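Training component of the fellowship. As part of building independent skills, the fellow (R.M.) carried out the full modelling exercise for a liganded target. The chosen ligand was oxalic acid. The inputs are recorded below so that the supervisory panel can assess the work.
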Amino acid sequence: MDRPVLAFCVPKFAGDSWRAAMAEHAPHVVFRNRFEGFGDPALVRYAIAWNPPPGELAQFPNLACIFSLGAGVDGILADPTFPRSVPLSRVVDPDLTQGMTQYVLLHVMLHHRKQRAFDSFQRERLWKPLTAGPAGDVRVGIMGTGVLGMDAARKLRDLGYAVSGWNASRKSEPGMTFFAGMGELSAFLAETNILVCLLPLTDATRHIIRAETLRHLPKGAFFINAARGGHVNEDDLLAALDSGQLAGAALDVFETEPLPVTSRLWSHPHVTVTPHVASQSNPKTIAALIGESIRRVERGEAPLNPVDFLRGY
Ligand code: NDP
Ligand code: OXD
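Fellow's submitted model of the complex:
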């Protein structure tokens, strides 16, 4: 009998570390990438995907499960021919969560503790104490306290910050305040000094950060985007930074990636740019999750962390 094939549908990337990790966690599966060729499409039972070219997944008639290489699935569901009868499993991995929490805490604290100002004073050999104020006076508002946002929220709360969350549904967690739905977005923003975006990118959240939302923040708020560039209208963001409505921003994700060299975000004095590295998928830990999902699917069960196609995340 032919062994099932796992197609690695990730543009420009051969996936050697994924091949090695999958050989350990699903040795009965044959790993193939587009450079060597996927072989007979009928033998492809599984796919690992990240921004696959439109139509690539639809060419496999016997897919049993598709695995996103990351937590977000917007780049996979953007393909209009995506086969919606096939389960799509996304990454929920403690290492990925830990990396994101580090990114969020790093930028919350760099801003709260005025570290950027001290960096510039040091360059001038200037001894100039500034006062940060207690963490409890800093209101950190997290858009999307799902797997990633909630972990960051708990750790920020434990450091003494005043934390609130905004979600589609109502959530509760000791020591935090929650808001739900578009009807409560402006109230959430009005109480936020540091806004963190950790939403999935869907039709409902595209360009949710735009002039009419930014104006509800208190003047001088700080913005951290570690979700997707599509959440932000970049012209409106730049206008808010120029006017002082926003004191600054830490941006890991952009509408166009790599961020074009012509973008004003690169050189804005109050913007910190990182190249979509807030948290990175680790093939070793994620291959173990994929191996477990393959065993579940082969027993006729659902994979780990299936995406709800109606919600889009
Ligand atoms: P989850 O699905 O666990 O959480 C999503 C959260 O967003 C939920 O709390 C959900 O609320 C909320 N949400 C979704 N839609 C809406 C809406 N329309 N209005 C209000 N709230 C909404 O996702 P993760 O935490 O695992 O990941 C979040 C995103 O982080 C990913 O989709 C990805 O884009 C990004 N990411 C970025 C990385 C990077 O390196 N920059 C790395 C990893 C992920 P509810 O539960 O009520 O539905
Ligand atoms: C993800 C990402 O969604 O890396 O996991 O952006």
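The panel noted the following from the submitted structure. The pocket of oxalic acid (ligand 2) is lined by residues 70-72, 91, 281 (CB under 6 Å). The first strand starts at residue 5 and ends at 9.
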